[in-house]
Fold this sequence. Notes:
It is a single chain. By secondary structure, this protein is mainly α. The chain folds into two domains: 1-21 and 71-125, no CATH class; 24-69, no CATH class. It is 49% helix and 7% strand. It has seven helices and three strands, in the order αβααααβαβα. It has helices at residues 2-12, 25-31, 38-49, 60-65, 73-82, 101-111, 118-121, and strands at 17-19, 91-93, 115-117. The protein has a three-stranded parallel β-sheet with strand order 1-2-3. Helix 2 packs across helix 3 (38-49) and helix 5 (73-82) runs parallel beside helix 6 (101-111). It is elongated. It comes from Cephalotus follicularis (Albany pitcher plant). This is O-fucosyltransferase family protein. One of its GO terms (molecular function) is glycosyltransferase activity. Belongs to the glycosyltransferase GT106 family. Keywords: Carbohydrate metabolism, Fucose metabolism, Glycosyltransferase, Transferase.
Amino acid sequence: MGKRLVQRMRMKSKHYIALHLRFEPDMLAFSGCYYGGGDKERKELGTIRKRWKTLHTSNPDKERRHGKCPLTPEEVGLMLRTLGYGNDVNIYVASGDVYGGEETLAPLRALFPNFYTKDTIASKE
């Protein structure tokens, strides 16, 4: 299946960027970071954190300031723009379920409208 996805992306453009955002709920919970989602986010991620008995208690703000938290999809998009990639670049997001769903992905999609996922380029074969 991987080869087929690569072929389909190359049919759209010879070059593309494949991203794995690492912004899944379990990754965010494991990191101990929070992203401004208020009590709902703290409760959801806190529940997931309980799966790991050996996780240290951290200061989410300090961890984020020290670069120990996954970047949000928007931050990834801004970083790519800063590196010189324009909105004509094809982006393939290889991540699983992104925390916050489409609402979280919307800023990245706005920065890079040629945005693809496995669901958008894979067939049911």
